[in-house]
Task: inverse folding
């Protein structure tokens, strides 16, 4: 499975979060980092090139900080220019059908602020409806967004968890659900030898997750056994 | 009350709808037509100028065709550049507090397509949530959007109704509700003498609307009288 990460961030070069995410995906051959602000600082998109590029990927990711409750303008320009009707609309035999659309959203405020009664008043599901509608129109599978809030305040263990979850979101063919995550984690393990720093973080986190999951599985199994024993009595 | 109409439409010069709307507002001294694509074709916004401009208006209108379920990229660029935190956030003492935000949205498909089970699957209320959230954050009053769908297919009477309703949306301090519309219509009447073509259309439509409203009022009055008579018996 090949993944294209389309990043829109006007000050991407100064962003600690984006630099961290960049490093997190750098070792994956099947992931392509595609920073629009570096490629098209003048807002003049190479439409044919972008359309050709999209054809080669199974999972398209829109990655951006939330600006006025949606993507920065450059990603919108990319949408308006590249996703023309004949290319993108499923009803017109579009080229994006059966691909996946993922969203990696970075927030400056806590994610819990995005709900009625809290600071931002609206949920992220409500605010991101236009992207869900885009996926629907293009015949794409919309993936639940991956939200990174207040990355700056994260502790090293929280950073490590974000790194692994982000890699899972980008590269796991089935990124959701405990069983799928375990399978992906074990696949990662097989490839990794804990030499450099980033890999060491991943290694430790994956081991921890597997252990945690294993505990949960064991717990569930023993509960099922108890129920079975009761039924047998 | 002063109104600023901020238009975002990449081919505004070729748009019959935008040309029609332009003519519809041309006679109103308190309405300013502000076409971003003509002012900023290179996406380089004069931020200070735009901020200064906004200060002079009570009602700000975002007017655009729906592109991928939101405004074309240039309006997003305008939002990202002009509405910086210190200028726009109500919590930071923003300059837009107590102003109104209106939306004039043109659609290429019928408005009824925007609902679950129909062609576009999502409602316009859902899709436009980011603008509602923007208004909330800026301390602005969000006006129910004014939707113009498939303008090209409208008959002359439908065009005339759109023209009057659009003028009402732009210039009526209280644009919603029968009573407010009648008051506004009468105000228009006082100013108009049916000389040129556009004014003639307005004149006839307003007269028709007042007559229709008057009929409804009379109908309601007679119903109330009937109820009263029953109570007296």
Result:
């Amino acid at each position: 499975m090949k993944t294209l990460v389309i990043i829109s961030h006007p000050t991407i070069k100064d962003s600690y979060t984006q630099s961290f995410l960049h490093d997190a995906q750098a070792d994956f051959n099947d992931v392509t980092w595609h920073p629009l602000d570096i490629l098209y600082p003048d807002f003049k998109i190479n439409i044919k090139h972008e359309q050709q590029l999209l054809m080669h990927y199974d999972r398209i990711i829109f990655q951006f900080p939330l600006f006025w409750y949606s993507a920065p303008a450059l990603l919108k320009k990319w949408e308006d220019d590249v996703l023309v009707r004949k290319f993108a609309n499923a009803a017109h035999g579009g080229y994006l059908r059966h691909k996946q659309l993922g969203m990696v959203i970075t927030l400056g405020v806590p994610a819990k602020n995005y709900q009625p009664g809290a600071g931002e008043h609206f949920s992220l599901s409500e605010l991101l409806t236009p992207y869900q509608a885009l996926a629907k129109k293009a015949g794409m599978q919309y993936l639940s967004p991956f939200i990174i809030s207040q990355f700056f305040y994260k502790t090293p263990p929280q950073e490590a968890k974000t790194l692994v979850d982000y890699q899972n979101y980008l590269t796991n063919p089935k990124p959701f659900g405990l069983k799928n995550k375990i399978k992906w984690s074990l696949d990662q393990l097989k490839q990794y030898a804990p030499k450099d720093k980033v890999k060491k973080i991943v290694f430790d986190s994956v081991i921890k997750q597997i252990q945690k999951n294993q505990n949960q599985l064991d717990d569930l199994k023993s509960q099922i056994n108890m129920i079975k024993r009761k039924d047998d009595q």
Observations:
- The mean pLDDT of chain A is 92.
- Strands of chain A lie at 3-7, 31-35, 59-65, 100-107, 141-142, 146-149.
- DSSP finds ten helices and six strands in chain A.
